[in-house]
Predict the structure of ABC transporter related protein.
Amino acid sequence: MDKTISAADTARDERRLRPLDPTQAPRGRGFLAWMWFAIGPYRSTFYLVTLVMASRHTVAAAIPMFFSYFIALVAAGGLGFGEAMSLAAPYLVVFALFLAGIVVLYPQLTMVDLAMRGLGMYALDRMIAMDTAWHEDKASGAKGQKINKGRESFKILLDSFFWSILAQVGLFVSLGAAVAMLDVPPLFYLLYLLFGLSYFALAVLTLPALRRRFDRFYAAFEELFGNVYDFLSSVTTIKIFTLERPILRRARNVELSGHRTAQHLFRFQGLRWVLLNLLAGLWIVVIFIFALYSATTGTMPLEAFTLILMFTVNAWMRFEWLAYELNAMVEAYAGFSRLTEVLADARDAVEAPDTQTGEIFTPRRGEIALSEVSFAYKNSAEPVVTGLTLSIPAGQKVGLVGPSGAGKSTLLKLLLALYKPDGGRLEVDGRSVADLDLRAFRQGFAVIPQEPAIFNMSLRDNIRFARPEASDAEVEAAARAAHAHEFIDAYPQGYETVAGERGVMLSGGQRQRIAIARAVLRDAPIVILDEATSALDSATERLVQDSLDSLFAGRTVIAIAHRLSTLARFERIVVMDQGRIVEDGPHDALIDKAGLYARLWGLQARTVE
């Protein structure tokens, strides 16, 4: 945040950016319903701006009628300047109000911007709330592109409503008023009506085909964006393996595929544009011929003929502009709809663990019990965990061991309620996790993952994520306990040093020490370690292990480590294989048993030798 912004300005901006209420979200994927939902906090402003903008467009479209009226007065003769001004005064007042109406431009722009940002915040919130399986199935770049393009498309659609749709409404209102007030034959009213109906019929009938092409275009664009994100986030790997040429070839193929999709879209857009303009041109010629005939035969006065010609030219320019605007609106509609499809999935995902609500309960003791728990990934033919029963008393230190694919990491995710079991029961401190509010439940866990997520912000804020209300002193104390203070303090900016995207400024060991500092700051009764010290050198690991021993005191600890020596001093080791628990006991007892654990221990011992 910019530190020059005052507290009063911040509070005012907080009041302006009002959050969207998820309980009011549409249940389907209807485009208009989601538009209406997104502007919900600002509807009073929307009504005011719509009224003023519609009035302004109507007045603007009526200006030709005003000129035509005064041409008729001047042509009739015998009208002095004073009389002419007195007759013009009401129109000038209306015109002055028309000019004054531009003051709504600021609230209109502000409303659109706030609604767009509110939609972006809501989309981010709902995507985060989606279950882990959904996120693992989607590319991060594509998800980000959906939000960005959806926000942009929402703004385009609102701007089009105020500046295009309302303008057309104003045109037809003025045209109707002109026909009623001046001596224009009703035939021309019918011609304009047929003109508008046929034009919009062709435009609407071609919209589904245009939308399908835009859908394919955006799908290709999201694939491209996801690839670019992957490539740029893996630059070091690309350089190490000299993959520049293969990566660029792959990127070129994706670009060419996207271009072919775009060509299909552009050809259809071009054909549609030609047909709409040919239709408009045909109607303009027909109206002109009828107007010319009526004027030359004396059935229509001069001022009406002038009005018809001015409105015809106006209509031609507006319809040509509208044809372009319709393309932009359909493109925006496609981009916005791709976001609302995700939001509708998030609204309907009642099975998603992260949307679960229930009893507000945070574990305090750390007692864990699993009974006949089974789980399979969505696209997996076989379950990853089968009939798993495990009881962990509060304060016990348990190591999880097993070959790759045994289900260890999946078990940890089940404990954190990142996945919902397909069967069985999971309890913490005697409470069924299925009945708990998950946000409150997860407050009882501290997790040190193998690959910590480091955000592009200060190191202080990266640590403080574990407990946002923590003071600077508490953050620094946690960093000292994790032996992170030494390298942080060595930076010129110290704790204010920005970590860079995904922690690019830090080494693997430094990132893990930041994660350990988070766990220390979290001060939770249950600690989960997933290869927590794998990136540390031996000397640092010994120092950090002492800190972890202090952190573990009185807490339930569940740890995965491929380096079995780090688990040998744990009270209990649970050995998994093919989703089942095959051995359970302390290190010495499992060695004496000469089973899977003993074989794994022996393999590592020989490797070290």
Notes: The longest strand covers residues 368-375. The beta strands are 368-375, 385-392, 397-401, 423-428, 431-432, 445-448, 526-530, 556-560, 572-577, 580-585.
